[in-house]
Design goal:
Length: 290
């Protein structure tokens, strides 16, 4: 694939730096993998496993977003990681916040090198784990250089603003749950973007919260976030929603493809080519008031 070609150079967008109210930064030591759902590209799971330390690394899987009463060791949701080579998997699940805030429950997280959140409804993750010892240990995992990944709801929960967090329906973008885990600060993350025709849905979120960076992930696609930026991997596209940038046609989002890079500090995108070319059509310009 094009992002694996060794003799390519990065063509940085020639945008002027724009002033933003706040900036998103990835973990200084650890890494995030945010996938847009329906992941069947084994390379995404292998990248996560490699970041955790390889097939034998201890990885904790948190399936709580799925809403099942319980999850056993033979749950089929473990198969994608097993098929990608992971051999040291443990399940961690509860809906009880008191349990999630107990010393005994979080012990597997202290030994883990990676944590993967599976899909479902992101508000379930917030209800169970937000502001508990689970969240504290997850931040500790990142601080010691580990990796947190997730698909669909497991990607959205990693942002600071919880898009589609309403308990009634997932079509409400700003609902009764609006706080995510914040592993990627100042961000709102959506998923299943193009497959479910959701590419316009983050616009009102960014209009209401212009300091946020909106990131829309299509299915079978992910971003790998570390420090000041991220890389797109997988098979489809990622959309960027920045209240301080527009397309020259007036469009309020633009797409990144696999291999593209994004600088979270400057909010500028770059694309990799054999010959340097511009990342065209994006200009520094605030969205007009409604």
């Amino acid at each position: 694939m094009k992002f694996l070609v060794p003799l390519i150079v990065i063509a940085f967008a020639i945008l002027l730096p724009v002033k933003v109210d706040a900036q998103s930064y990835g973990p200084e030591n650890g890494t995030l993998v945010l996938a847009g759902g329906n992941v069947h590209d084994v390379a995404i799971f292998r990248r996560f496993i490699d970041l955790a330390g390889g097939p034998d690394a201890p990885i904790v899987v948190i399936p709580t977003a799925g809403g099942a009463p319980d999850y056993g060791p033979y749950w089929q949701g473990l198969l994608p990681l097993k098929n990608a080579g992971a051999t040291n998997l443990a399940l961690l699940h509860t809906y009880d916040r008191k349990v999630a805030d107990s010393e005994a429950f979080v012990l597997p997280l202290r030994k883990a090198r990676g944590v993967w959140f599976t899909g479902g409804r992101q508000w379930r993750l917030a209800d169970a784990y937000l502001h508990t010892r689970v969240q504290t240990e997850l931040n500790g995992l990142l601080s010691r250089g580990g990796v947190i990944g997730g698909s669909s709801a497991g990607a959205t929960i990693q942002g600071s603003y919880l898009a589609r967090g309403d308990t009634r329906t997932n079509t409400i973008m700003m609902g009764d749950h609006q706080e995510g885990m914040g592993f990627l600060p100042m961000s709102a993350v959506d998923q299943h973007l193009l497959q479910l025709n959701r590419q316009f849905d983050l616009i009102p979120v960014i209009e209401a919260h212009p300091h946020l960076l909106g990131i829309g992930l299509d299915e079978n696609t992910a971003i790998v976030v570390h420090g000041g930026g991220f890389e797109v991997i997988g098979q489809s596209y990622v959309a960027i929603y920045d209240h301080n940038q527009m397309l020259d046609s007036g469009g309020r989002f633009y797409f990144l493809s696999p291999g593209d890079q994004y600088d979270l500090k400057t909010r500028q995108a770059s694309r990799m080519y054999r010959v340097p070319e511009r990342f065209e059509r994006i200009k520094p310009d605030k969205w007009p008031d409604q």
